[in-house]
Design brief:
This protein has helices at residues 19-22, 70-87, 147-153, 181-198, 217-230, 232-244, 254-264, 269-278, 282-294, 316-331; strands at residues 3-6, 12-16, 47-48, 94-102, 108-117, 120-129, 135-136, 138-142, 162-164, 170-176, 202-208, 299-300, 302-305, 308-311. It folds into two domains: 3-142, no CATH class; 153-331, Glutaredoxin. It contains ten helices and 14 strands. The two termini are 35 Å apart. It has 332 residues and is an alpha+beta fold. 37% of the residues are buried. It has a five-stranded mixed sheet, with helices on both faces. It has a four-stranded antiparallel sheet with strand order 4-5-6-7, with helices on one face. Helix 5 runs antiparallel to helix 6 (232-244).
Length: 332
């Protein structure tokens, strides 16, 4: 259930929602989720990310807990204990307060809580009254601005591989993982339906979101951006090559397969190999994952269509509704 509370401050809406929904990526989900031990054997249609660190196949360390005085430490523990008790969060799920800053609403502070299940983690925000008496499990929405435009402003388009008409009225940003089987399904929808139906009316932008549960996903992301550095069009041959051959790629052959794609795309293979071996593009991958977290993205695939979020494996009709709406809006 979702309730809306309109504060006295103009342009602010507090949306109250069940924290269990906010914590869903740690328990269940509708995107490719890192808590799954074997993504390819997953039965749901989605998979989820752990945190903004790139996939390494190794357990991640918890974010360092800031040094606080004893009184602050006690208050932080009270916040965690109350959230845990109210929502029935099991002891196996670790929780700790990372930061506390003033929110946009007078009298409420924004508290960032790290929620961790083994190697998988997520950061969530709650609101705490300044007098430390109440915790509000909610998020603040600024209704003074177009929410979809806000989403698009959070996306950095520089150096991101793209295709299609750069002046298209609809931009589709794909946050994806080359090893994710659900991303492979979404790839077919984009290729066989979206692009065939809309052509130059849409622009596609790719963003990397490799999951820790996928052993060759990060290497593929590195390879794709190394190709993009030499030739934007070459990236899309890697994009196609990875998604259409997921079942035959492994951690043992990902480099060889990437070099094959580089040769076919007529790249400077020596330069490409140097980029790949030194992981020159890893900082960009990390930045893209941080960006995704800023958008509230917790899994792959996820498409941002002119700011509208389409998570998981969506039917073509879902893309069609948003694209047609945006094209109509642009023509008015």
């Amino acid at each position: 259930m979702i309730n809306k509370h309109f504060s006295k401050q103009a342009g602010i809406v507090v949306v109250l929602t069940a924290m269990m929904m906010i914590m869903t990526p740690l328990f269940a989900g509708n995107t490719d989720q890192t808590p799954k031990t074997d993504a390819k054997s997953a039965t749901s249609k989605t998979q989820t990310k752990t945190d903004s660190s790139p996939a390494t196949g190794e357990a991640k360390k918890s974010s360092p807990t800031p040094t606080v005085n004893p009184e602050e430490a006690r208050m932080n523990q009270r916040i965690v204990d109350n959230i845990r008790a109210t929502l029935g969060v099991p002891p196996s799920i670790e929780m700790n307060v990372l930061s506390r800053t003033p929110s946009k609403i007078n009298g409420l502070d924004k508290v960032t809580v790290e929620v961790r299940n083994g190697a998988d983690s997520n950061k969530q925000e709650v609101l705490v009254s300044s007098d430390n008496k109440f915790v509000l499990i909610a998020r603040i929405i600024d209704v003074s601005d177009n929410p979809f435009a806000q989403n698009m402003r959070k996306i950095n388009f520089s150096n991101a591989p793209s295709r299609g008409n750069k002046d298209a009225k609809v931009t589709i940003v794909e946050y994806s993982d080359f090893e994710c089987p659900f991303c492979g399904q979404a790839y077919k929808t984009v290729e066989n339906d979206v692009l065939k139906q809309y052509g130059d009316k849409v622009r596609i932008v790719y963003k990397n979101f490799p999951l820790a549960s996928h052993p060759w996903a990060e290497s593929a992301a590195v390879a794709g951006l190394c190709a993009s550095q030499q030739n934007n069009d070459a990236f899309w041959s890697f994009y196609k090559g990875f998604f259409e051959n997921q079942s035959s790629i492994s951690p043992d052959n990902i480099k060889a397969r990437s070099l094959e794609l580089a040769t076919t795309a007529k790249l400077d293979t020596k330069k490409f190999e140097e980029c790949y071996d030194s992981k020159q593009t890893l900082p960009q991958i990390k930045a893209e994952m941080d960006e995704a977290q800023g958008l509230g993205i917790t899994g792959t695939p996820l498409f941002v269509v002119n700011g509208h979020m389409l998570p998981g494996v969506q039917p073509f009709s879902a893309f069609q509704r948003v694209i047609d709406e945006e094209l109509k809006r642009a023509s008015n």
